[in-house]
Request: fold
Amino acid sequence: MEVKELDTHRKALAINLEAAIFGSFAEIGAGQEVARWFLTVGGASATVAKSISAYDKEVSDDIYGAGTRYVSEERLCAMLDHEWKELLTQLQHSRGDKTRFFSFVDTVATRNFAGTNIAHGWMGLRFQDQPGGPGNDIILHFNLLDPTSQLEQEATGILGVNLLYAIFHQRTNPGTFVKGIAEVVAPSRLEIDYIELKGPVFESADWERSAMNVRLVTHRFSQGVICTRDKGHVPFIDGFHKKAVVLAPGFFEKPAPYHAEMMTTALQHLRDENHSSEEPLGLFCVTVPPLLPDESNPEFADLLSRVDALHQLGQGVLLVHDRELYKMSAIIQRFTSLPIRFVVGISVLLRVFEDDYRHLNGSTLKAIAMLFPQNVRVYAYPMSTSAVQGWANKLSATEWQWQDANGTVYADSLKPPGALRYLYEYLLASNFIVPVKPSAGAAESVA
Reply:
């Protein structure tokens, strides 16, 4: 029976007291923080077959093979395969008929002394649902957010205990399972931005990979998740690291061909501007909250259908929990210093300046400063005059003015009210806001 609201100590002890659960721990980079819980709460001999930390690179290569980054999914999978094979070889004959075996592995990079690296980790678990049954896998990627290496190690340990407990006690449904993994540590101390499930116990549609990753965002255990066009779901560090990025943010209730036109135009602008041989990453940025604050959030199934529809337009998708552009910018700034470009319609520009930022110390100026570090620009796509007028009414931005150009409004013809006009003109003159001239006929479609 599931016991609710257990702390980490009692979760580890509950696993230790189950004689049928037995396995090994292999941890690299953050001490042996997960195994430590099971070794110190009592009864560890009933759970821990082995605990190892192949901390030295040569030792790690000798055990798990060379040729992969040490904190990567490839290294994690090599660890998982090795430890599982060794566990079954040693113990299957003697106790396999009464034991549910597991192998827990992680490889983690905590904050370095100078604080200049990206603190993150991979965590994996292979387990049997029944004695003698096939192995099932769960793999997580997480970003560590604590200010010291010691606290990051502690958070890693709690996450690992959560994972083991959730696997054996909280698999009643995917929502309960995800919440169990994230208890105590997410999102305050770490974010989980990738989850992969394999094996017979995860074969039902409820455990489908895309749905599980979306749950990380809807439950607020991550600021966002990425699903690229060619690689599927990837963590932030693999998707954004040293990448130039174009984001097309929106609610995308009805994805349409003109959205693809906007993305294609923006990618070409960035190629021309950046003069780099590496192809920039283009992502439609789907926001969980709607564009207007008085509208309700979409149903879970509706979010999944929007993500699927946008994939059909030929680019990947970034699903985020917050609609403010400065929050989206902050996510990506953690992983790249290369150019970041937003491509938005005039309606989004209106919203950026009209949103209520009283929660920030500095209000609108603070939000604009957070949105526009030196490597961030906004490509502003024109819209039809009637669409701009409609959005101005919805956003109560009725004091904005603009000049009509054959039924189209361009960013450089907008005139915000009052003192905002000077800020807007500065952003235009400094090329932080870049008016885009799309192909003939495209602007009329943007609504």
User: Anything to note?
Assistant: The first helix runs from residue 8 to 16. The longest strand covers residues 100-109. The chain has two domains: 8-220, 236-445.
